[in-house]
Specification:
Elements lengths: L2 H5 L6 H11 L42 H15 L18 H7 L17 E4 H8 L2 E4 L2 E7 L5 E7 L4 H4 L7 E5 L2 E2 L6 H11 L7 E7 L5 E7 L1 E4 L3 E7 L6 E6 L6 H14 L4 E5 L6 E2 H11 L2 H4 L3 E6 L14 E3 L22 E6 L6 H11 L3 E6 L7 E2 L3 E3 L2 E4 L3 E4 L15 E2 L14 H12 L9 H11 L15 E2 L8
Parallel strand pairs: 11-12, 12-16, 13-23, 16-17, 17-22
Antiparallel strand pairs: 1-20, 2-9, 3-4, 5-6, 5-7, 7-8, 10-11, 14-15, 14-21, 18-21, 19-20
Helix pairs in contact: 3-4, 8-9, 9-11
Length: 506
C-alpha cells in the first residue's frame, strides 16, 4: 500500500484527515502524489504533447529510456484518453516533479460537483505487481476492515467485518469491537506524530510477518487483546448468505464486499442457494463494497433481474471524451447484462442462475462506490425497483481502463457510465430511500441490525424507521453518511469501476 495513503489513515491534523476523504472512498493518491513540487504558473517551455505510443515503455529502470520519457508518456496518455482532458492545466512543467507518478497526480481537472466536492477525486496509480495481486483477492494484512468513525482525537475505530479464516478472525475479532490501543499506544487519544505513524504502520502493514498487539473493547464492555501477525489474506467477497423467513415469504440476504474475479463463482453459488430457498425478495448488502470489475457488476444485476428485462438491454454504456480514444462504436462501448460466465472464476459461457426479481433492496453507505453503484443504476435502467437503505453512496459514475507503463499502472477517469435510460449523473452519490446509520452493535445479516431491519420494515410497510435515538448512531450518521465521507480505508483499486478489453467484446 502506498505510504502516503497509509499515513493518512488516522489523520493527526485536520488537513491530513481531509486529504484522506479522497483516498478512502474510491479516490486515492499514488505513492508519490505527495512528492509533487509546486509547478511554475508560467507555461513557457512546457514540452509538446506527442502520440503516447511513440514514448511508451521507454523506462528509466531498464535503461530503455529516461524519467523524462515516462513523464512525456503520462502527459500524452492523459491528453488522449482522460475524460476531461481539456480541463487539465496546460502550464504544468514535468521538470517540476520528481517522478512520473507525482506529475500524473496533478494532471486532472480541478472542477467541482454541485455540492462542492472535487469532480475528480479518483485519480491514482499502483505498482503493477501489486495491482495484479489485488485483482486475485490477495493483500497483506490481518483480514479485518476497520471503520474510522472519527479520525481525530478522541478517535472512534470499530471493527466493520473480518475475512473468514484470517488472522483477525482466528484471534476472535468480530464486528463492533472498538480499537483501544496497538502495542501500548493509545489509539483513541494519541497526538504525537511519532505515535500516529506507528499506529498507521501497524494498521496497514505493507509486508507479511509484522506482529502487533491490539487492545480492543467488545460490545459487552469486556477488554480483549489480540496478537496479530500480517499475512497474505485471501478475501472472500461474498459472505453471510442466508434466508430470513417473513409472513409474506422468504427474504434472501447476502453481504457482497468486492467486485473481484473470485466474486463471480461466489455470487453464482449464493444465487443458487437463495434460488433453492425460494426467496421472494433480496437484500443485497453492499455498504462496504467499493467496486472493482464492471463485468462482475453486470453478472450480478443479470442474476437478480427478470430475464425479460435484461434481454438485449444495455447494462451500462461507456461515454468517452470527444476524441473517442479507444475507437469504439456505440455497440462496442456498451456492456450488456451478461447472462453467462466471463471466465473470471466461472467457465466462459456457463449459464448464470436467475432470481427473476422485479425489485431488490440494497444496503448502502459512503463506502458503496463505483461498480456497486453500477449495479443499482443498471437495474434501475431496465425498470427494476431498487430501494437503498442506509446512507448516500460515494458518487462515482466513472471508470478506468488501467494502463501499465514502466511498472506502474495508471488509473485516470476515461469514461462515464450511463444506464439504459441514459442516466449517470450522480457525482454526489445515489440518495437512500431510508436514511439509517450503520449499526455496529449487531452482526451483518442479523435481522435486528439497523439497516437490515429497516429494509425488512420498508418491504412490509413502505415506511422508514424514525430517526435514531442513540446519540452514537446519530453521531456516526452525521460524521460519515451525512458528510459523504467513507470510513473504511482500502486500496484505491478496491473502489473502482474497471473495464477489461474482453468486457467490450460482448
Amino acid at each position: 500500500m502506498p505510504q502516503s495513503f497509509v499515513r493518512a489513515l488516522l489523520g493527526l491534523a485536520v488537513a491530513a484527515s481531509l486529504a484522506l476523504a479522497g483516498c478512502g472512498g474510491g479516490g486515492g493518491g499514488s505513492g508519490d502524489a505527495t512528492a509533487a513540487s509546486p509547478a511554475p504558473a508560467d507555461g513557457a517551455n512546457v514540452p509538446a504533447i506527442v502520440p503516447s505510443a511513440t514514448v511508451a515503455n521507454r523506462c528509466a529502470a531498464s535503461s530503455t529510456g529516461t524519467r523524462d520519457d515516462e513523464k512525456t508518456w503520462v502527459r500524452s496518455w492523459i491528453d488522449e484518453t482522460y475524460l476531461w482532458y481539456s480541463e487539465v492545466p496546460s502550464t504544468l512543467q514535468p521538470a517540476a516533479y520528481a517522478t512520473p507518478v507525482a506529475y500524473f497526480a496533478d494532471l486532472k481537472t480541478s472542477a467541482l460537483t454541485p455540492s462542492g466536492r472535487a469532480k475528480d477525486r479518483f485519480h491514482f496509480s499502483y505498482d503493477t505487481a501489486q495491482y495484479s495481486a489485488i485483482l486475485q483477492s490477495t493483500e497483506s494484512g490481518y483480514g479485518v476492515e476497520f471503520a474510522y468513525l472519527s479520525r481525530t482525537p478522541p478517535r472512534q475505530i470499530r471493527v466493520a467485518y473480518t475475512e473468514p479464516g484470517s488472522p483477525a478472525a482466528q484471534a476472535g475479532l468480530v464486528r463492533g469491537m472498538t480499537l483501544l490501543a496497538i502495542d501500548g499506544i493509545d489509539a483513541i487519544n494519541a497526538g504525537s506524530q511519532a505515535d500516529v505513524d506507528r499506529l498507521n504502520a501497524a494498521l496497514a502493514p505493507s509486508t507479511n510477518g509484522q506482529a502487533h498487539a491490539f487492545q480492543l473493547r467488545a460490545a459487552d464492555g469486556s477488554a480483549a487483546t489480540a496478537n496479530l501477525t500480517s499475512a497474505s489474506v485471501l478475501r472472500s467477497p461474498v459472505q453471510a448468505v442466508r434466508t430470513i423467513p417473513t409472513p409474506s415469504g422468504n427474504v434472501g440476504y447476502l453481504q457482497f464486499n468486492d467486485h473481484v474475479e473470485k466474486a463471480e463463482i461466489q455470487l453464482v453459488d449464493a444465487v443458487n442457494q437463495l434460488q433453492a430457498a425460494g426467496i421472494a425478495d433480496l437484500v443485497l448488502d453492499m455498504r462496504y463494497n467499493g467496486g472493482g470489475l464492471l463485468a462482475v457488476a453486470s453478472e450480478l444485476a443479470t442474476m437478480v433481474a427478470p430475464a425479460a428485462s435484461t434481454q438485449g438491454a444495455a447494462f451500462e454504456r461507456l461515454v468517452f471524451n470527444a476524441k473517442n480514444p479507444f475507437g469504439l462504436s456505440g455497440s462496442q462501448a456498451t456492456l450488456p447484462f451478461y447472462a453467462t460466465g466471463r471466465g473470471l472464476s466461472v467457465a466462459t459461457g456457463q449459464a448464470l442462475p436467475r432470481l427473476n426479481l422485479p425489485r431488490v433492496t440494497v444496503l448502502t453507505g459512503p463506502d458503496t462506490c463505483s461498480a456497486s453503484e453500477s449495479v443499482v443504476n443498471g437495474l434501475r435502467g431496465v425498470g427494476v425497483k431498487v430501494d437503498l437503505i442506509g446512507g448516500a453512496t460515494c458518487g462515482k459514475p466513472y471508470g478506468f481502463y488501467p494502463q501499465d507503463n514502466c511498472g506502474t499502472t495508471y488509473f485516470a477517469i476515461q469514461f462515464q457510465g450511463v444506464n439504459a435510460q441514459g442516466f449517470g449523473d450522480y457525482g454526489d452519490g445515489l440518495a437512500p430511500t431510508c436514511t439509517v446509520a450503520d449499526d455496529f452493535e449487531h452482526a451483518l445479516g442479523d435481522a435486528a441490525e439497523a439497516r437490515l431491519a429497516a429494509a425488512l420494515q420498508y418491504r412490509s410497510s413502505g415506511t422508514c424507521p424514525a430517526a435514531p435515538s442513540s446519540k452514537s448512531l446519530a453521531a456516526a450518521l452525521q460524521k460519515t453518511e451525512g458528510a459523504g465521507t467513507p470510513y473504511l480505508d482500502r486500496s484505491a483499486l478496491r473502489a473502482s469501476r474497471i473495464v477489461r478489453p474482453a468486457d467490450l467484446s460482448n
